[in-house]
Specification:
This protein is of the alpha/beta class. Helices cover 40% and strands 20% of the residues. It has one domain (8-146): Mannitol-specific EII, Chain A.
Length: 148
């Protein structure tokens, strides 16, 4: 059975965060409120361990914070949209508008790598990024993301 990685409950069209730390907390809230996480603090710690290796602000206005940990109940990608953009310490120095937070259990083998690869391939396309930026409803976002 294929994991359902995107869900309307973990999509946010109006990210309020102004800093990287606020974004991370806001995205973790989405996952936690939908019972994706067993242990919020453990998951958060895993996110920061990954960020210390190198920023997950990959450029093109995109951040993909991710963690593979036993703190996750079921795999999910939370999506956040920030029209104003957030200073996320990105590789290219640009503000981040599209945030994808990947949560997978440490028992999910290569799922996080496969998800990162699929997302990255799609997000290279400026038309796809622009379409996400123009979404007015969570349902519109979900339709685009499910196409990945």
């Amino acid at each position: 059975m294929e994991a359902v990685l995107f869900d309307i409950n973990t999509i946010k069209l109006d990210v309020k965060a102004k800093t990287k730390d606020e974004v991370i907390n806001e995205m973790i809230d989405l996952l936690d409120n939908d019972h994706i996480l067993k242990d919020r603090e453990m998951y958060k710690k895993s996110i920061y361990v990954r960020e210390e290796m190198s920023t997950t602000g990959i450029g093109f206005g995109i951040a993909i914070p991710h963690a593979k940990t036993s703190a996750v109940n079921k795999p999910r990608v939370a999506f956040g949209l920030s029209k104003e953009g957030v200073d996320y310490d990105s590789e290219d120095g640009e503000r981040v508008n599209l945030i994808f937070m990947i949560a997978v259990s440490d028992t999910d083998n290569n799922l996080h790598v496969q998800t990162l690869a699929k997302l990255s391939r799609k997000l290279i396309n400026p038309v796809f990024r622009n379409n996400l930026m123009q979404c007015k409803t969570k349902k519109e976002v979900l339709v685009l993301l499910e196409a990945i």
